[in-house]
Structures are given as structure tokens and as C-alpha cells.
Amino acid sequence: MKIVKWFFIVLFLMFASLAAYLTLVFDPNDFKPEIVDAVKKQTGRDLIIAKDLTWTFFPSIGIELGDITLSNPKGFDNVSMLKVSKIVAEVELLPLFSKQVEIAKLNLDGLVINLETRKDGRTSFDGLQTSATEDKPAQVNDTTASSGSLSSLDIGGVSITNTQIRISDKQAGTEQVFSLDNLTLGKFSLGEFATLEYRFSAEMPDMTLMSQGKGSIRVAQDMTQIQVKDFKITNAIAGEAIPNKKLDISLLTQLEILLETKQVHLILDELNAGDIQATGKVDIAYGHKVPQIIAKLDLGDIDLDKLLPQTDKADKAKEQSQAEASQVEPDLTAMKSLDLTLSLTAKSIKASNMMTSNWIMDMTLKNGILNLKQLNADLYGGKLAVTARLDGRQAVPSYSFEKSVTGVQVRELLKDAADVDLLAGTANFSVKGKGRSLLVDNIKKNIAAKGKFEIADGALYGVNIPQMIREAQAKLSGGSSSTSSSEKKTDFTSMTGSFSVVKGVVSNPDLLMSSPLIRLSGAGTANIISEALDYQLTTAVVGSLEGQGGGDKDLLNGIEIPFLITGTMSEPKFALDTAGLFDAKLKQEVEKVQDKLKDSLLKRLGGF
To answer: Which candidate among 164, 339, 366, 600 keeps its CA 20 to 30 Å from the CA of 187?
Structure first.
């Protein structure tokens, strides 16, 4: 028992001696001015350590700091950008006797970060890096420097808990508060990779977020470069406004930050968001007044319809009426604060039930102007090509566009895009236009455009014009109307025309439809606001109706039959103008009688 007793006495005396040595001889406050000066030189900010640095001896030897603040730039609402209640740095014992501090582990508790963006665009991060034009601090070679000089620093690990991050954006008028459940950094030395892991949660008015990530980080020996390697992030988002009320997102990235040149290089090895998969890279030059971003993304199959909230027709009608009642021009001022060059490819994109594939898109956004240089895609057996320009510098934005489709199967397109089964064939279409305002009603009213179209080997659904002619022919010949139940479809070999759009009305002055049996021509309008159709056309028999249920094949030959299209785009109505037909037929018969009388008279006169 005496041996055990003396063992603990000796152990206590050794621990007491060490505590006395550390407390009386090795004062950690000797490093305090160096820390404050180093932060000032590197960031231009004031670091305040209100409490003295003290030793802790339980449960392990360490240095404790408290009430630490790092200031925000002058003029910000929050004086401090960063506040810490307590930091405990656990240190290695033996290096202390050589006046070296090797931090075994750093524990941080009660961290509060206030990040602010002012209306003038200034942020809390402005000036955190030493300006490249500043003189580098002279190296101290004096070997007689203070006995408290810091000769080396290694961190065995970092643990951050009980953290709150407040983000205030005066430009957008928003404020968000997030909680960092934990952040841990493994053994860290300058120039070496260390493990980095975090878990983060947020409760917001319209959604909740859970995020966690794990990877490796390295800070260069000269503190000019930060690398993040193989960083895997998973997010779970839930809320009423989220598609299907829940969305899982995961990504694997490589990141490089060059502090001197103020550049960020991000490689996106893998992105999964719901059913969307993507890879790409993003380069950011943040040293300019307007950040310059160059992004290249390669997407897989995307179904945008799955990302939209599922609503029934009643809900959609209600949302549409509410939107129309409170229409406000979108605020595009944020376009001025971005310099973006984006290249995008996609295997397929489905939107509003319309399918496109093999996307190639190049666009730029600079000085408030979005320029869509090219958008090419495969569209229902054909090709789509679009260029466009959107100017968001004014309160009411303006736009221009040029669009063409070639070789498109128009029936499948119309059925998927508008649930309309009206027209079939292989279509070529081009249009060029411009307008002001992005409100739906104003787009319809203000758009001005011109274009042309041609459709080959197609059909007009909902009407059988040859059958209508046969029925009219039967009435003229005194017979009964045809009772044939032929499909309501009119085949044609070609349909061509040009059009213009002014004040919400599409005018088509030269519609021409040809087939082996009939020829249809004329002009008309389509109102894109009310969807009303008004076409005044004429049709003529140019081929034999025999075999098509026709009787006397020559009865209507040479007569232009008035043909009307009315109703709406979704429910068109077709009709032969019977009164006009009888007038035309009567005129033809009168002309025949006159011709016969003329011939008879000439014969008689010739007989004298």
C-alpha cells in the first residue's frame, strides 16, 4: 500500500511541477500579439481576444482562449464577422520544452458567423486576402527574438460544435440562419492533405435541409492555395414547394482555390439530383467587381415535368388566375452582377410533355444581357435551332429571337406539346421576332414576328374535304347525301405559307394546300390571345373523285368552292360555304348557256 501511495504522490508532484512550469515559465500570452498581428496583416481586420490565454490541465493539457471576435468591414450592420465563445487547443507535451507548440487537437464551441452583403455589392469577405500590391512582411532573422517566438505549428485535429451562421443579403432583402451540427478536421499540416467532414442542418419557413460531406483538404505551405479532394456531399431537402415534397442530391467534387489570383476551379465528377445526372467543371474569377464564371455541364436524361409540383386542372386554373391578377414584371437586375459563359450538353430534356434530345447550348450573360448564341437539339425526327437575346437592363426587359425547325414530325409534336391532333406531316418552319415584357399577356400582345412554313406528305385532321365535296356534289345532282363514315382526315402532298404576328394576331395571307384530288388556297388569321380562327379559303377539284365515293366526276370541276375555318385552335370548325357553292355553280351554268347561245348565234351568222 505504501508503494501505491508514494507512486501517486510522485505522480502528483510531477504534474504539479509541470503545471507550475507551464504557468510561471511558459506563458501562452506571449503568442497573443503575434496572432493578432498575423491576422491583421493577412486580412486587414481586427482580431480581438478579450480573455487571457490560460492553461488547462484536465482532462488534458491545453491552451484556452475565450471571447474572440473578428471584425466585419466598416459600415456593416454587424460589427463582428466572427465571434467565438471558447477555443481549447490541446497541445503535445514534449515540444513545449523546446518552446514549440504542436496542437494535438483544437476544440471550438459557440461560433457565430455573420455574413453580410450590402446594397452596393460589398460583402463580409472583401479584403480578407492580402493585396498583391502590398509589401510582404520582412522576415525576422534576429536570433535574439523574444523567448515566446512561435517556431512551428501542427494541428492534430479540429472539432467545431454549436455553430450558427447568419447570412444577410441587403440586395435581395433576405436573411437566413443555419446551424452547423459539427465540423471535424483531421491531422493538419501546411502542404499536407487532411480529412474534412461536416454535418449541417437548416430549418427554413418553406423547407428543411440536411447536408453532410466528407473529403480531404490541403492548404499550401505559402498559404496561397487551398485544395479540396474527393469531396462527397449528400443533401436531403423537404418542403411543400419541393418536387414530390422531397429531393435527394449528391455530388462528388474536386476544388482548387487560388488566393493570390482570386480564382476558383471546380470539377464536378458526379452529380445526382433526383433522376438528373451530370458532370462538368466551373471556373470562377472572383477578384473582379463582377465575378467571371465559365461553366461547362454535361447532363444525362432530364424530365423537368417530374420536378414540377403535381396539381390537378382546378389547381392549375386557380394558380393561373392568381398569377394573372398579380402580374409583375420580373426583376432582372441580378443579371448585371454576373459575367457567365455557359456551355451545356444534354442527352434528352422533357418539358411540358415535349421531348427533345442531343442538346447543345452556348450562352453568355454579361452587363445585364443574356445572349443565347446557339441551342441545337433533335426534335421529333427533325432538328431545332434557336438563337436569342434578352436585355434585362431596363425595368421592362426586351428580347429578340430566331428559330427554325427542319424535318419535324408535326403531329407528334402538337399532340405532346399542346394535346392537339390537328395536323400531320414533315414540317420545316422558321420565324424571327422581337418584343418587350416577359409577362405572358404582354408577350402575346407585344410580340412582332415574321416567318414561313412548309409541310410535306401530311394530313389535316378533323375534316374530310373530299367527302364534304362529294356530299355537296350529290346535292347539286339531285341525289342523296353520302352516308360514308370515312375518317375525318384530308391528306395532302404539300402545305405552304408565310405569316406575320402583330398585336397578338397571326396573319397568314398565302395558305396553299395541294393534293392529287383538291387544291386549297386563301388567307386567314389566328388570334393567339383568344385562340380564335378565321380563315376564308377556296378549294377546287383538280383530280377525279371516282373511287372516293364521287359520282359525276366533272360536275364540280373548275368551280372554286368557298371553304371556312372558324372556332378555336384547340377546337377548329370546318365548313363548305354551300350558298357560295350554289352561286358558283349557277354562275358556271349561266356561263355555259351563254357560251352555247354565243356559239349558236355565230353559226347562224356564219350561215349568211
So the answer is: 164
